[in-house]
């Protein structure tokens, strides 16, 4: 009996040893081709495998190398360990599935069609190492992922979002608008959502952490209490989301974050965003508060400031305080994107130094100013088309709106007040100037505009209609204006200097020169004019014979005048303005040697009809000069009228005869002078 048992054990050992040798001599890859052919014919997997390792003594374990599914998935190795295979019941339980060095193209990926005996698939442990993903602008590399207790297929249907626990990391995840590296995450798939309780990553040179929920059914991405630190976000174009998706942020923390776009740059942001919701276009809904070191939007610039934001798709509200342009700023603003409207509920700026650049453009279609207050403001324009500088300026505006190139009132309180210590326009300088104005539905009313101008005084009041034909009313008073400043500003071919007083009361329409009515008076003294040698020219004309009226070449006369300079002790031009014509009464100019009286009219359209007389010490005219036509090239006629004895005075106004003038009959006195 013992001998029989010994023989049986020996035989069993021989059988086992022979089976083991047979299995080692058998190449399982010989079965690869028919098995793959059967799989591809029955499952439409388009599967290819480079090498298989399989031991029939361990039938539930398989290692495949160089695996490929169509043109959208490949892996260097796939290890499969089955826990249970029940093809008759359609159940497959996978204990371990390892995918190593895989590549997945999400854009072309397909759900594999499997036979009915693979209706239910449950994976206890899925391990992925060094996976690369591509698709629709996304790229990811170095992905390591562990998923447990996952059932991706049920009742013959794939359910990729079935419940499971997962954790993993990725070397990099990139998109045209996003760049992540060193990504670590853990969470679960639950209720068809990806819930990552802990996400950490390097993002645009900084750090990101928080919780993330990806809900494909509702097309939402939620970030719970995300923290952004030391991030430098650079966006060449505005970020976008896939159509129909929403981004939700709750209590986002910002620590030293920088944002840079083609128009907006913000550095050193610290603060919080709450309840933010963004649909991928337009402006987001939400609220937040933060402080930043600096911010620029086109030509607008803020330095250290604090900001509170509350907005939705229809309205964006901002409360702002801080420093800007070397001064302080406080603002309460509202932006209505659909209307293209900016409401300035309150804006206060003090001690700011503003610089106007040639490329500055204002692109907001409508602005409503409820309260604007600027004080101790400086402005320097670098634009040749706007040669303006302001020192110590103040401006207060309330209840005014600007749109379509026009100002309009928002209430009966619409007004504008301003003052400036010094204003320079080109070479014109105004000092200690003040402005009070009101705006109605139809008119701009200037109650007061006064100051030191041209080293003298100026006062202006009046009104102008906002709409055509822009009827205008002006009252202007100027005292001791120094004309050299005006000469420098005009950069005229003939320089001039002297002192001028102006009084004007006028009404009219700027586009209609014939509509002007009122009174105008100019009083000047010690006036010097380059290339206007009136005294030598008059002496020559008095010495010539014009007993009969004779027309003279005005161009030749102008050339004669330009040979010397002119000096005038006193000038007084006055008279009413009717239908755009200034009617000169009792007007005269006193030069060094002559008194010239004026009668006639000068038009706002540049035409004139002037009768000038060279007056002797008795007030009688000895040389008549008639100027008619356009002032650039008038017709000129000279006449020496006969003098009665006694002569009838032609001028009896307030301008006296010059002390250096020739006494008696001018023509006789001039002709008696020695030749020059």
UniProtKB/TrEMBL annotation:
Domain of life where this protein originates: Bacteria
Gene Ontology biological process terms in this record: regulation of protein targeting to membrane
InterPro entries per the UniProt record, alphabetical: AsmA-related
GO cellular component annotations of the record: plasma membrane
The protein's name in its UniProt record: AsmA-like protein
Source organism (scientific name): Oceanimonas baumannii
């Amino acid at each position: 009996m013992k001998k029989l048992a010994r023989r049986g054990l020996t035989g069993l050992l021989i059988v086992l040893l022979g089976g083991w040798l047979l299995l080692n001599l058998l190449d399982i890859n010989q079965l690869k081709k028919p098995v793959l052919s059967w799989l591809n014919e029955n499952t439409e997997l388009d599967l290819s495998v480079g090498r298989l390792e399989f031991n029939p003594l361990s039938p539930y374990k398989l290692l495949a190398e160089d695996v490929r599914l169509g043109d959208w998935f490949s892996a260097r190795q796939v290890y499969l360990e089955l826990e249970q295979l029940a093809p008759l019941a359609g159940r497959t339980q996978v204990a371990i599935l390892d995918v190593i060095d895989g590549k997945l193209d999400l854009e072309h990926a397909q759900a594999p069609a499997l036979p009915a005996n693979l209706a239910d698939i449950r994976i206890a442990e899925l391990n992925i190492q060094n996976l690369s993903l591509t698709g629709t602008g996304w790229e990811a590399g170095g992905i390591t992922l562990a998923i447990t207790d996952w059932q991706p297929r049920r009742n013959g249907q794939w359910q990729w979002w079935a419940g499971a626990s997962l954790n993993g990391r990725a070397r990099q995840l990139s998109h045209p608008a996003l760049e992540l590296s060193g990504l670590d995450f853990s969470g679960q798939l639950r209720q068809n959502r990806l819930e990552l309780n802990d996400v950490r990553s390097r993002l645009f040179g900084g750090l990101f952490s928080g919780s993330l929920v990806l809900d494909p059914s509702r097309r939402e991405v939620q970030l719970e209490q995300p923290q952004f630190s030391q991030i430098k976000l650079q966006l060449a174009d505005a970020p976008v989301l896939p159509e129909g998706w929403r981004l939700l942020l709750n209590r986002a923390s910002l620590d030293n974050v920088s944002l840079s776009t083609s128009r907006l740059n913000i550095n050193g942001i610290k603060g919080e965003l709450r309840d933010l919701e963004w649909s991928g276009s337009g402006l987001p809904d939400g609220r937040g508060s933060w402080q930043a070191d600096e911010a620029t939007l086109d030509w607008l610039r803020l330095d250290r400031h604090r900001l509170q934001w509350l907005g939705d798709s229809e309205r964006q509200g901002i409360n702002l305080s801080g420093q800007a342009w070397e001064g302080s700023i406080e603002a309460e603003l509202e932006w209505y994107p659909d209307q293209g409207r900016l409401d300035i509920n309150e804006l206060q700026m003090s001690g700011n130094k503003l610089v106007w650049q040639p490329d500055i453009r204002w692109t907001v279609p409508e602005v409503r100013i409820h309260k604007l207050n600027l004080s101790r403001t400086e402005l320097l324009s670098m634009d040749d088309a706007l040669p303006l500088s302001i020192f110590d300026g103040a401006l207060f505006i309330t209840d005014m709106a600007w749109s379509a190139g026009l100002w309009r009132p928002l209430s009966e309180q619409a007004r504008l007040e301003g003052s400036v210590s010094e204003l320079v326009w080109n070479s014109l300088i105004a000092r200690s100037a003040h402005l009070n104005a009101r705006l109605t539905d139809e008119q701009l009313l200037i109650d007061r505009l006064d100051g030191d101008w041209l080293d003298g005084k100026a006062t202006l009041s009046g009104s102008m209609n906002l709409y055509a034909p822009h009827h205008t009313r002006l009252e202007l008073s100027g005292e001791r204006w120094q004309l050299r400043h005006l000469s420098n500003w005009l950069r005229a071919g003939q320089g001039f200097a002297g002192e001028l007083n102006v009084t004007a009361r006028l009404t009219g329409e700027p586009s209609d020169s014939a509509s002007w009515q009122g009174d105008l008076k100019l009083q000047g003294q010690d006036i010097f004019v380059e290339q206007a040698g009136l005294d030598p020219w008059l002496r020559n004309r008095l010495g010539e014979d014009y007993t009969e009226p004779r027309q003279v070449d005005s161009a030749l006369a102008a050339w004669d005048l330009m040979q010397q300079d002119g000096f005038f002790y006193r000038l007084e031009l006055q008279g009413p303005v009717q239908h755009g014509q200034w009617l000169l009464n009792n007007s005269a100019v006193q030069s060094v040697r002559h008194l010239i009286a004026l009668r006639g009219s000068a038009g706002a359209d540049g035409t004139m009809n002037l009768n000038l007389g060279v007056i002797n010490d008795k007030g009688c005219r000895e040389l008549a000069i008639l100027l008619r036509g356009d002032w650039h090239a008038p017709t000129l006629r000279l006449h020496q009228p006969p003098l009665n004895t006694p002569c009838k005075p032609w001028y009896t106004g307030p301008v006296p005869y010059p002390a250096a003038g020739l006494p008696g009959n001018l023509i006789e006195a001039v002709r008696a002078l020695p030749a020059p």
